[in-house]
Amino acid sequence: MNLQKMFEMQKVLDDRIIKEKGLEGQDLLPNTYVALDTELAEFANEGRWFKHWSKNQNPRTKIEHFCPTCDGTGDENHDINLQYLEEGHATEPYSKCQDCNGSGKLGESNPLLEEYVDCVHFFLSIAIKKGWEDAMNIQEEGFEELKKKGFEGGLTGIFLEMKWWLLNSYMSSTKKTSFSVAWSLFLSIGTIGFGFKWEQIEAAYMEKNAVNHQRQQEGY
């Protein structure tokens, strides 16, 4: 995972937001921590592992997006034919939808990974604001050792531990060290807990970064 490139991309995005929203000179660190905490909750919600009250505790890793033009039917005449049927008229012959090439689908997404990289955005932002970029250096061999040992307390245990260290990085005297531990535990949850690959995280981050720029362009 090319963290240096991601830092550069995040700084460009953060600087753009600050300039376009007129936030120069404001201390945005507290808001960024709240934003990260919120995204971590959204990530957990998609992970679902903690929902002991639910029959479905499987993470949401795949959502198919149906074509709105043909309503997922693949037939370009779908809407017209519904109207014809209601009026008792003969329907038009099948015509392949051009928007989805007749498949009825416009691709799929991974909500769990999307929420995960939203968290990555705010981890990067905090590190940039505090000058803690080196605290996010990755020692991949350490993750291999943890993978063999497993998580003490399962996913819930390591998630709560990660949140504890993250809060410490804002409140305690060992801020930078606590932030580094929180980041490492967060990466462990993604790579060990859910099997994300380093290159997968990087690619998803870059894709979402582009979406965030587009949102700013559209006046988000």
Can you characterise this structure?
It contains eight helices and two strands; from the N terminus they run ααβαβααααα. It has 220 residues and is mainly alpha-helical. The protein has a two-stranded antiparallel ribbon with strand order 1-2. Helix 1 packs parallel to helix 8. The protein starts with a helix and ends with a helix.
Total of DSSP H or I helical runs spanning 4+ residues:
8
CATH level 4 superfamily of the largest domain: Type II deoxyuridine triphosphatase
Major sheet, described briefly? 2 strands, antiparallel
CA radius of gyration is: 22 Å
| CATH-defined topology of the largest domain | all-alpha NTP pyrophosphatase fold
Oligomer: single chain
CATH C-level of the largest domain: Mainly Alpha
The best one-word shape is globular
Low-confidence stretches: none
Binned strand content: under 5%
> Strands of the largest sheet, in order across it?
1-2
Number of strands: 2
Architecture of the largest domain, CATH level 2? Orthogonal Bundle
| Helix proportion range | 55-70%
Head-to-tail CA distance between termini: 29 Å
Helix/strand-derived category reads mainly alpha
Write the element-wise H/E pattern from the N-terminal end onward.
Answer: HHEHEHHHHH
In total, the number of domains comes to 2
Mean pLDDT: 88
